Amino acid sequence: MSNTSLTAHIDGETLGWAQEMLAAYRARVACPTELTTAARASPRPNLNASAIYEFIRQRRSVRHFEEQELRVHDLSHAIEFMRCAPTSCHRQAVKAFLSVTPETARRAHALCVGRSGFGDFIPAFVSIAADLNAYSFPDEAFLPFVDAGICAAFFLLGCHANNLAATLMAWSVSDEDRDRKLHELLSIPAYYAVAVNCVVGVPKSVAPPNPRKPLDHWFSVV
Fold first, then answer.
1. N or C: which terminus of the chain has fewer CB atoms within 10 Å of its end residue's CB?
2. What is the dihedral of CA 27, 31, 37, 42, to 10 degrees?
3. Per the confidence metrics, is the pTM higher than 0.85?
């Protein structure tokens, strides 16, 4: 924050928030015992691992939605889940750009690949993007997409918890023209990199679960 050439590109609200976080960090470093005690005192939610697993297992990618328009409020609960996602160095540089206008959502959806099987009605469209200004070092080039991917996973679970279905749309193969059009359509600033997109709505039909590879495929022991 002492580098004026960098802070000149950061809005006052973000800079003020960063200064507050820095002050809080310095206070915690000065009193590490108090921080440890506070962390230990935090109550755990009354959930068990089996219930959480079953909740996650029941989530589906849905391509047919009820012709029911959504409000921003309907998605705000899922964004609350995203807000709790971990990010590298606690940057919190990820943001959801969304439209609950079906016509705009349909136009945004048309810019994505992998659109086969979707119905005509697209209730809402969400782009999850990362502010590239928060990642200044060359070896951090991949971190915006890691952070946005983690946030996207939390967002999907947030939709599922609120009886909505969210389906990821690939963006890694987008070209410069489609990327520009999506930025314009959803008013995404140029310094935000779109990592992944989602179509969201009330599910009309739910497909059976896709088969998963065996558990021992998912880890390796050394």
1. C
2. 10
3. no
List the Cα angle 141/112/69 in 5-degree steps: 115
Cα separations in angstroms, 74 against 56, 79, 130, 154, 159: 20, 10, 23, 16, 9
**Per the structure block, which two tokens stand in for 214?**
């065996």
User: How many Cα atoms within 13 Å fall on the side-chain side of residue 136?
Assistant: 10
User: Sign of the C-alpha dihedral, residues 207, 111, 168, 217?
Assistant: positive
- The string of pLDDT tens digits covering residues 173-206 is 778 999 999 999 999 999 999 999 999 999 997 7
Residue burial 87-113, b: 16+ Cβ < 10 Å; e: rest: beeeebbbbbbbbbbbebbbbbbebbe
